[in-house]
Amino acid sequence: MFERYTERARRTIFFARYEASQHGLREIDTPCLLLGLMRENKDLMARLLPSGSKELAALIPADSEQVARLTADVEALCPKSARKIATHVDLPLSQAAKRVLAYGAEESARFDCKIIDGSHLLAGLLRQQGPETACLKAHGIDLQKVRAELQQGVAVAMDRLNQAPSLESLAGRADLLRALSNIPADRMEAAATLLEGLASGKFEVTGTSRNGPFHFSFEDKAESA
Asked: Check: CATH 3.40.50.300 for 7-163?
């Protein structure tokens, strides 16, 4: 069931189960999922809150006052119980929580993602329209905002993909490395000078070979222009 989940998404489920046990619940309900998600994804929540930013998420996500207030409001949704459930007891997901996971998978497919991460689960929670949804909206987090975060993540991933070297260039580099590995040790210095020149766009090499002294120069026209 959780094959496509990232490590953080799996830890979200683990922490949700912990929250359920701490509140004496016999099943993992949607507020527990949100508490688990907030515990594991403080950086995400810090970015999504109204005064949040990437800088805040990177520097002090755990100390954000807004994150702390949201956590307290979600905690208030869980029933008060003095009796905790042992951590070794298996707790099932509630029907509402199962729908959240299904919605999260749909959100992943919506953005053509191969994985399911915390952002997808948060979108699923907002789609479920449970008691925690009103809590999230009261703190300025809605489905549109989460989907914008997902879209931005897709855009960043595409930029990285476009900047990655092509298979052809990687093959060319492999050929170059193989050629360099075959250069005799006594010619390595000349080869290094040649490569430095190629990298700069122009170079001049003077030396002595078996056939006598030699001089070779090259200047990239594009570089000189």
From this structure: no
* Cα 114 from Cα 108, distance rounded (Å): 7
Gap between the Cα atoms of 31 and 50, Å rounded: 21
**Band of the pLDDT at 198, cuts 50, 70, 90?**
low
| Residue ranges matching CATH 1.10.1780.10 in the chain | 7-163
Task: Please tell me whether residue 207 adopts helix, strand or coil conformation.
Answer: strand
pTM for the model stands at: 0.65
Identify whether the C-beta of residue 28 lies closer than 8 Å to the C-beta of residue 97: yes
The 3-state DSSP class for residue 73 equals helix
**Residues 131 and 21 sit within 8 Å (Cβ to Cβ):** no
- Give the separation between CA 127 and CA 138, rounded to whole angstroms: 15
